[in-house]
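Students often ask why we bother encoding 3D structure as a string. The short answer is that it lets us treat folding as translation between two languages. Here is a chain of 174 residues written in the first language.
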Amino acid sequence: QFLPLIIIFVLFWFMLIRPQMNRAKEQKKMLSELAKGDEVVTASGQVGCGIAGLVVGLAVPITLGLTFALMKLAGINLDRITLGALIIALGLLVDDAIIAIEMMLVKMEEGWERTRAAGHAWNVTAAPMLFGTLVTVAGFMPVGFAKSISGEYAGGIFWIVGVALVASWIVAVV
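And here it is in the second language, the structure alphabet:
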């Protein structure tokens, strides 16, 4: 008489509970790999470029933190698609910070004081970096607005890449 209950419990376990446990393990593993990649970028930047490399390297975790916070606010879960989008964006996250820091360093080497060099870097690079960021985000727009199963499945790529790159621009100019 308990056989139907046992069968229901086993089915419930294998269909609902166990996949959730495996998914959580996969997410932890993926986040761990993402963190290792960020550590390599930060360390290599510091070794290769000193304090400027450290600043650029720290831009990545700050940007990822902003991205995760915005994902939480928007109700976007971390899954394979969104993690893939973060990996796609990871190579682009440091670009804006490199441009801003490089402009500051060039002006400081020319004898400008720090605040004046920072102001000049903002005035000269902020708008071009923003437009470059928006053009890159626009490249993913067809995926984000596709009215199909593919768009529904992979539409998160557009939103996550967009959020990550705009957050990267904000971190670079602030």
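Translate back mentally: The mean pLDDT is 79. Keep this in mind for the problem set.
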